[in-house]
Amino acid sequence: MNESLRPMTVGEILDRTAQLYRGNFLRVLRVSVLPAAVIVITYSAIFILVREITNQQWRAAHTERGVFYLISLLLLIPLHFMSVSVFHAALARLTHNLYLDEPQSTGEIYRTIRKRFGRYLWLLLLQSIFVLLIPGLLFFLGFLAFGFMLVLTGKSSDPDWWMIAFLLAVLTGSLFLLVWQAARFGMGSAVCVIEDKKARLSLKRSVALSRGTQWRIGFCCGAIWLFASLIGLLATPAMRLLYQLGRTMQQMSVMIAAAQTLHYTIALLIQAVFAPVISMLLVLFYYDQRVRKEGYDIEWMMRQAGLEAPPVAAAEAVSPVANPPFELAAAPDSVGEQ
Fold this sequence. Notes:
Elements: H1 10-23, H2 25-53, H3 56-61, H4 63-99, H5 106-115, H6 117-153, H7 161-185, H8 188-194, H9 199-210, H10 214-233, H11 235-249, H12 252-294, H13 296-304, H14 311-316, H15 325-329, H16 331-337
């Protein structure tokens, strides 16, 4: 894109994301379609296996097959996490290249990702734990308290309005906390890929960079996710129509297969077309926060002009954040003495 780096509003960040996405749609699709396909296939398989394993009647009639399904589930879950980590890392690298006009082919991107694959997988696992742990714990405790209320009042079949209000408050609080945590740790992939930091340091840096802008990040990413979910819901009437046609034409198995094919095709399109927008958006938020907090636009202009400090000098440079004011005030005296 090669535009001047500067602090941007939410509208400008969304506009630049849309420009990057529209102008490089085929490149984004080439990078995202393979891991997106693996994500959809493994997620669908995990969902089906969990549904079958938790079915008591099926489990009693198919004991040996249940063991096979359980082993398959244990193999599919790591594969799913691997594909998700590759998906986000590859899109972060691609967005970085496009935004700063540093061209790199799809093969080069994946070769770069392969060198740090274990780090990106560990980052995703830590992100999942930190994002889901606190909201999940809040929801569990709230639901447990709701159950105690029903038992103590003896109104399990007809709870009072204040009990329902309490449960809705717990659900709303858990959802907002989930968005907050996702916004705090969401830039971890961008930090890990662009700055080549380790997983835990990337998450710490993501929290530091996102401070003060969590709701901007959460609102933008949440809106895109909601829009993609609504697109997915549009397939529901079509699937019901196929089921009804199957009953009318007495071709239920054929129509069920057609409905499932439609469902998985739409899921793949959403994962390959809409999910990259969120990954690209987080990279642009990452650069916007670096410009706001660290003056990265000045560093970039110096680099473009060939005035970047050598690595040794940059490492020994005095940081105005890390040193107290009196050390900065003493700097002109030391220059005068020289």
